[in-house]
Amino acid sequence: MILVTGSAGFIGSNFVLDWLAQSDEAVVNLDKLTYAGNLENLATLKGDPRHIFVQGDIGDASVVGKLLAQHKPRAVVNFAAESHVDRSIHGPGEFIQTNIVGTFNLLEAVRAYWSGLAAEEKSNFRFLHVSTDEVYGSLKKDDPAFSETNRYEPNSPYSASKAASDHLVRAYHHTYGLPVLTTNCSNNYGPYHFPEKLIPLMIVNALAGKPLPVYGDGQQIRDWLYVKDHCSAIRAVLAQGRLGEVYNIGGWNEKANLDIVHTVCALLDELRPRSDGKSYREQITFVTDRPGHDRRYAIDARKIERELGWKPAETFDTGIRKTVRWYLDNQDWVQHVQSGDYRNWVEKNYAGRAR
Ligand code: NAD
Ligand code: DAU
User: Fold this and answer.
1) Distance separating alpha carbons of residues 188 and 208, to the nearest angstrom
2) What is the mean pLDDT of residues 35-52?
3) I need a labelling partner for 210 at 20 to 30 A (CA). Which of 10, 47, 50, 275 fits?
4) Are 351 and 288 in contact (CB under 8 A)?
5) Which ligand minimizes its atom distance to the CA of 10?
6) Which residues pair with 27 in a beta bridge?
7) Domain edges within the chain
8) For residues 160 and 164, what is the distance between their CA atoms, to the nearest angstrom?
9) Which distant-in-sequence residues (6+ apart) come within 8 Å of 146 by Cβ?
10) Taking a C-beta distance cutoff of 8 angstroms, is the pair 219, 164 a contact?
11) What pLDDT is stored for residue 48 in this prediction?
């Protein structure tokens, strides 16, 4: 079996659902259930003996140590993190705690477990750390895309905390020989994406008749990847990745934020037209920019394609259509995640941004 952390969140839950759809290898799911963790994402696994959920913190060495001793996983896949850049700007503390200290404690518990394994299990064991392209900083318009050898230049408390965790993972391989793999992926989108991030926020706000807040001039560029493609890339790296290596994962799909918002509006105009016949574009509102906002991310995903044969299966057109449909078909999920904490966050982040 494998231990997957943070798998009640957006990407982790997609990963577990896909994993168990393709394999009978069981998953132990360790998640603290922060505001971003939602067991409803995994509701279809209720009663499935291949999925064992444990609520706990990756930073709690005794919980992790007990889980490892009890279930003896052959691999750990670490998704657990604080993941939202804007939240890291308002309050970096949790990011330091989970992304740095938490990853450190997790690595220590895994190292103790791995050290005690028999020779064959020890050499087959893998620790896969899921990270982000944001560690590489911001690109200028004509810069080449991020490759695995780009230097780290993180610009937000979030990306700095992820960069620190990547360095710890690297050091545990270099110093202790822990069999690690690191993936640095671009922006994901798809089902179960928490509506604090750009694409789900725009869909949810549009349908609710609320403003669509575009930061600054909306010309910041991200490289979007459908979440299921990220999951298949992680499976490929786990299965065949070279130990100690880093693999960049991306969609070859650079788009400016404003274009993304226009695409979402056009799909909603088609699939769920406004009752007044106007376009959802009418709801776009330009608001004050994110402090330190990275201008452009782009991933050079040639290494993972060359070494592991991985390529994204979805184009942006197919992926975004599926995503908008999913939100239209899952309005109950949306209502349930809009908890008190979420409403407080919206007030904190957007009050005072109006321009
Ligand atoms: P998310 O915020 O949706 O989910 C994070 C999950 O981790 C939640 O279920 C949360 O409860 C859990 N968690 C948080 N702190 C924890 C702790 N201390 N112990 C145990 N569980 C904890 O995040 P996501 O978007 O699914 O991202 C998952 C991972 O992928 C993160 O490491 C993130 O940095 C990375 N990543 C995300 C993207 C993206 O576009 N979302 C892109 C590249 C990499
Ligand atoms: O690049 C990978 C990263 O992508 C992940 O590591 C992060 O966990 C993930 O949250 C994401 O970070 P971004 O900051 O790029 O994603 P977000 O959805 O928050 O914002 C995408 C872009 O849209 C960014 O340029 C900011 C802008 N934006 C965002 C929000 C929430 C807006 O213009 N308005 C908004 O309301």
Assistant:
1) 23
2) 94
3) 10
4) no
5) 1
6) 2, 51
7) 2-189+224-252+293-314
8) 6
9) 133, 136, 139, 184, 248, 297, 298, 299, 300
10) no
11) 96
* CB neighbourhood size of 312 (10 A): 22
The CA radius of gyration of the chain, in Å to the nearest whole number, is 20
What is 2-189+224-252+293-314's CATH number, 3.30.310.250, 3.30.1050.10, 3.40.50.150, 3.40.50.720?
A: 3.40.50.720
Pocket test for ligand 1, best of 83, 162, 188, 247 (most atoms within 8 A of CB): 83
The rounded distance, in Å, linking the Cα atoms of 114 and 19 is: 23
Give the global pTM.
0.97
CA distances to 24, 148, 242, 248 from 245, in Å: 27, 9, 6, 10
Closest CA to ligand 1's atom 15: 81
Q: What is the pLDDT of residues 277-291, one digit of tens each?
A: 999 999 999 999 999
Mean pLDDT of all residues in the chain? 96
Q: Which atom of ligand 1 is nearest to the CA of 188?
A: 40
